[in-house]
Fold this protein.
Amino acid sequence: MKIVNLAVLLSGSGRTLQNFIDLIAQDKLPAKIQVVISSKKDAYGLERAKRHNIPAYLIERKQYKSPEEFSQVITNILKQYPIDLITMAGFIHLFIIPSEYQGKVMNIHPALLPDFGGKGFYYEKVHKAVLESGVKESGCTVHFADNTYDTGPIILQRKVPVLENDTVERLAQRVFEAEKEAYPEAIRLFGTK
């Protein structure tokens, strides 16, 4: 299996980034993180990248007039690195994917798409909606991203039960544990094609 050169786009704590870093260090994920890009200056993911000597950039969405302009700046950075796969890891903004990266951008969503997805459905908002709906299971979905929110071909899903007395926090933690297995598995699958 070849080493997959990754870019990681994030907007928050960088827990998924840390999971990738840990699995790579344990030889459980055949990948190399080439660059991290954050859309938020207070994202702890930037600190995680710096601690592991991974080039990290801040591209704040609010600094740009349009999604196209924002996406072009990101693309200009990505082109400086040998990238096989762009992974969205809690990246909450629309990244308009240029033709050269079509089919090479993955996202993970903390629900079983197509339910509980779309613009504005991220972080705890997803888990709150799941709990309010009364469904008996949730989970995560890894999919190839396209130029809309939470659509694109599904690669794999992992299910977790929704328990009777669940809180947003407890459900979120259970879903994240599933994410920690599902996302690396999808990257490994990508590396075999």
